[in-house]
Amino acid sequence: MSTAFVEVDRVDLAYDEDSGNAIEDISLSMSEHEFIAIVGPSGCGKSTFMKLCSGLRPPTKGSVVVDSREVAGPLKIVGMAFQNATLLPWRTALDNVLLPLEIVEPYRSTFRTKKEHYAQKAIALLHSVSLQGYEHRFPWELSGGMQQRVSICRALVHEPKLLLLDEPFAALDAFTREELWCILRDLWQQNHFTVVLVTHDLREATFLADTVYVMSKRPGRLLTRRVIDLPRPRELEITYSDHFAEIVRELREHIGRIRST
Questions:
Q1: Residue 116, phi then psi, degrees to nearest 5
Q2: Three-class secondary structure assignment of 222-236
Q3: Residue 6: per-residue pLDDT
Q4: Are residues 210 and 43 in contact, defined by beta-carbon separation less than 8 angstroms?
Q5: Closest CA to 156 of 178, 188, 180
Q6: Which of 4, 66, 49 is nearest to 31 (CA)?
């Protein structure tokens, strides 16, 4: 059997001694290039789990291994995008995408000499998400959906092996959200990175993920693992199928039981 790309083993995490564990006894294995989604009630520790995988928070107990190395600090092989695009307002779309290359090694040390090369790479990413012609626009000149596309490009420009997405489409309207599902699906299929998606949207989780995990109330535990047995590549039409609806209903029943206890 191949070694797991992400291995979380019996992990607890407490932010301080008084508040108790935010997550508890979490064990999970992810294969390289796998796409997982984590769903659960608000405050259950979904975002905390992402901090563990990125190295932004060490576990109180247990271990986290990513790409065969135990996580001991922030990882360079990780890209992150959040619910709010958090673009720098004084930088254009292109300059916002280039930001990680100015900060993360080995790109940082060669950024000045290779800036034109890196800019072409960033422009190609922007074009891949249908933002050609918007490279030199500022965030305030872009719609919310456009800003989120820029944010995703920024997370991917340094070619991370692991992409962490924390409710990236939650603030968008339904039509824009579905459009970005398809953009993310295509980027993942083309570039073969590993993805952890945190979301409250069960349709989103079912459409995008290979595997969906359901977390309990705080302290968050993994209660259910659901393999999404829908064929790939997936088109939006599959979201209207009976089997898709059955999976969403099953996940919703798990969430309902959690909320009722």
A1: -65, -40
A2: EEEEEECCCCCCCCH
A3: 96
A4: no
A5: 188
A6: 4
- pTM for the model stands at 0.93
Q: Which domain holds residue 140?
A: 6-260
Do residues 152 and 80 lie in contact, with contact meaning Cβ atoms separated by under 8 Å?
no
Question: Residue 13: is its pLDDT beyond 80?
Answer: yes
Residue with token string 């040390």: 109
Q: Is the pLDDT of residue 11 over 50?
A: yes
Give pLDDT tens digits for 89-109: 999 999 999 999 999 888 999
Q: 1 in a domain, yes or no?
A: no
* CATH at residue 157: 3.40.50.300
Rounded percentage of the chain residues whose pLDDT exceeds 90: 84
Beta-bridged to residue 168, according to DSSP, are none
Write the CB contacts of 213 (distance below 8 Å, at least 6 apart in sequence): 28, 36, 37, 38, 39, 222, 224, 225, 226
What is the token pair recorded at 143?
């719609």
Longest dimension (CA), the chain: 59
**210 in any annotated domain:** yes
